[in-house]
Amino acid sequence: MSNAPSGRGEPRTPTVSDQRYSSTRGSSEAPARLRFTSVQAQNSEAVVASIASYLGDRLGLPVDFVDDVPWPERERMLDAGEIQVGWICGLPYTWRVRSRIELLAAPVMRGSRYENRPVYFSDVLVRHDSRHRCFEDLRGLRWAYNEPHSHSGYNVVRYHVARSGVGQGFFGKLVESGAHQESLRMILDGEVDASAIDSMVLDRELALHPEHYRGRLRTLVTLGPSPAPPWVVHQRVAPGLRVALHEALTRMHTTREGRAILEAGQTERFAAVTDRDYDPIREMERVATGVVLSA
User: Fold this and answer.
1) What CATH number should be reported for the domain whose range is 119-227+282-288?
2) pTM: predicted TM-score of the whole model, two decimal places
3) What's the CATH class of domain 2-87+231-272?
4) What SS3 class is residue 41?
5) Angle between helices 45-59 and 239-250 (to 10 degrees)
6) What does the pLDDT look like over 66-82, one tens digit per residue?
7) Is the dihedral of CA 53, 202, 207, 268 positive or negative?
8) In the chain, what are the domain boundaries?
C-alpha cells in the first residue's frame, strides 16, 4: 500500500465540493483518511494513484492507494468498506447494485472513436503478419482472455459469439491469461492466435511502449462500444463526502493539475453516470448466458 502524496495544485477558491464536504467534518462517518484502489489493468495504477492524490488534495484528506494485495482481495475490501473508493470493471459493478457500492463517475477517454462519451471498446487483435482477416477466421484457433469476470475480455466476446451465429465451441483452445497485457504478450510470442483487448488498456500500452508494439499488431474487429468502467464509492463514506468526490472528479479537467493527470492517462474528463447507463452490459450478459467459447 502506498501513501499517495498530497498534490500541489494551483491556488483556488472554495468550490461547492469544498462547502458540502466541510459539512461532514466531525461526522462519525467521515474517515480519517480515504483508501483508494484499482481493479483495472496494472498499467493504469500510477495514474489512478495520482488521481487519488489529487482528490485528497482537493478535499483536504490524506489518502492511501492500495496496490499491494491481489485484485480479488481489493474487491473484497471495497465491498466491505475497508477501501472506500475504487475503479472497477462494469460487469462486476452490475452484480453489486444491491450492495453498498454506488457510482461516482466514469472516464471519457481521449480519441475520436470515444466521441466524448464514457464508453470503451474491445479490440480483437492478431499479429500483424497473421493470415486471418475477420472474426470467423478464428474458428478452431487459440484464444486468450484475461479473466472470466471481465466485460471487455470475456463477456462481450461471448455476446458477440451469441449474436453473430458462429456457433458454440467456436475456438479450438481457451487460455486464461490473467491480464490484458499478458494476452498481448501471448499474441506477439505466438502462444495464442488472438484476444479481445480493452481499448483503454491498449491505448495506455501504446502510449507507454510505442516502439514495442509498432507494426506488430492488427485489429480484426472492434466490439462495442460498452459503458466505461466506473469509479465507485462505498456508502460507508458520508453522503456529503460522496457528493464532494463526485464533483471533484467531474470537474477535474477544469484545473491545470487535473488536466495534466488526465492527459497522462489518455483521459479527457470524467462524466456523471447512472445505474441505467450499465444496462447494456446486463443485456449482453443475458444474451451471452449459456455460450460456450471452446468445445
Assistant:
1) 3.40.190.10
2) 0.89
3) alpha beta
4) coil
5) 120
6) 999 999 999 999 999 99
7) negative
8) 2-87+231-272, 119-227+282-288
